[in-house]
Amino acid sequence: MNIPLFIGGWGGPELIVILFVVLLLFGGRKIPELARGLGKGIKEFNNARATVESELKEGMRQVELEERQKAEKKEA
To answer: Three-state SS string across 12-55, please?
Structure first.
């Protein structure tokens, strides 16, 4: 059975092929610049994710507080 490249998962040979292609396309001098850009993109993504997560938690806290206040008004 002939399995095409990358279908079976990410192993050593696949990663070597990817690194070789990146080296051919960008050259040795552009790779650090590319890595820096990738790092900045990951950092921005994580910051945005953390912001959304904190906003969702704050919204959930507000909803719980409003529900408690409504329940207390009904009891009184």
So the answer is: HHHHHHHHHHHHHHHHHHHHHHHHHHHHHHHHHHHHHHHHHHHH
The per-residue pLDDT for range 24-48, each reduced to its tens digit, is 888 888 888 888 999 999 999 999 9
Q: Please give the structure tokens belonging to residue 61.
A: 């806290």
CA distance 56 to 62: 10
In terms of pLDDT, which residue wins out, 19 or 67?
Answer: 67
Q: How far is it, in rounded angstroms, from Cα 17 to Cα 56?
A: 41
Q: What is the rounded CA–CA span in Å between residue 15 and residue 5?
A: 11
Q: What is the spatial distance between Cα 17 and Cα 6, in angstroms, rounded to a whole number?
A: 10
Residue written as token pair 């050259």: 27
Q: What confidence score (pLDDT) does residue 7 get?
A: 60
